[in-house]
Amino acid sequence: MIRFLKEIYLTGFTILFKLSRAKKITYRAGGAMTIITLIESFNLTNISSWIDIFAGKQIAPRLSEPEYILVFLVLAYLNLYVLIVCGFTFSHGLPFEHEFNNLKKSRKIALVTSCVVLLLATIVFSIYSISAHRHFIQEMTATL
User: How many whole angstroms separate alpha carbon 84 and alpha carbon 30?
Assistant: First the structure.
């Protein structure tokens, strides 16, 4: 299961890498890595909101804008390390992009479909989380 999730993560990178119109490989890899980092940061924000909702009070600290930027940069550095720096040692990132072309068609379809489904689930989860957290905040302020 962990291997399949890793392959979906790498497939997302591969799809974004291939969709890029940049000519330099470093720009294409950096753009794909940045979008992956944005998706991860949305998921972390949503999880933080749900922790508050399930606890019934604000547990997760509200981050200021510089703190959000710092968290994003830490995630970006981790993705840079995993996808690009260590990529050649552990067959992540760019080497996986080359291997992706040699996968069986059924495996490619399964990975791309899973990646798209997870992306759509992230979008739906984000929209629902925003709505639920706003409602939670309104209830909290109404009781004060």
Answer: 9
In this prediction, residue 26 has a pLDDT band, given cuts at 50, 70 and 90, of confident
Question: Which residue range is the domain that position 31 belongs to?
Answer: 2-143
Percentages helix, strand, coil for the chain (3-state, rounded to 5) are: 85, 0, 15
Count: domains in the chain: 1
- Residue 87: CA count within 13 A, CB half-sphere: 21
- For residue 105, which phi and psi values (nearest 5 degrees)? -60, -40
Distances from the Cα of 113 to the Cα of 2, 43, 108, angstroms: 17, 19, 8
Answer yes or no: pTM beyond 0.70.
Answer: yes
